[in-house]
Amino acid sequence: MKVAVYPGSFDPITKGHEDIIKRAAKVFDELIVVVSVNPDKKGLFDIPERVELIKRVVKPYANVKVESFDGLVINYMKTHDIKVIIKGLRAMSDFEYEFQMALINNKLDSSVETLFMMTNTEYSFLSSSAVKQTAMFGGCIKGLVPDEILNDVIKKVGNRR
Length: 161
Ligand code: PNS
Hints:
The protein is of the alpha/beta class. The protein has 6 helices and 5 strands. Strand 2 (about 30-35), helix 2 (about 45-55) and strand 3 (about 65-70) form a beta-alpha-beta unit.
């Protein structure tokens, strides 16, 4: 069985993430979305909340699971004996960071491959940070995050202002 892990901070999941999930789920028998901690980013939603939001969005995809993991993604891969990491690339600006991550992960465990999927051009401008900032200043985020979680994001940002 071909299994892949799609790790990320997903704070919150965007339409761009959803697009990668939908496409990767067609290529692999099983896709596990793993909510991981990015120590460089300050969180809006806590990890269980992010998992719950993603679960709601991926409900139509029978072969997609959602989990969280506190620690190195490569340790998750080892524990579950999974050999493929999927990452989305939006633009050249993502490349250096993702390249470094892929190389570090490969150095930690050379049996694990990172595969990159190009984001649909429709979402190439999109990031969770841009969504949060837009919502925070009262901008419309419809079409930027899946409809299933739109109100959760607006409400959460409203509570934080
Ligand atoms: O969505 P993001 O913020 O770009 O995802 C980054 C993430 C969470 C995948 C990355 O920070 C990560 O892998 N965190 C877990 C710790 C880890 O494995 N780091 C890689 C070696 S530095």
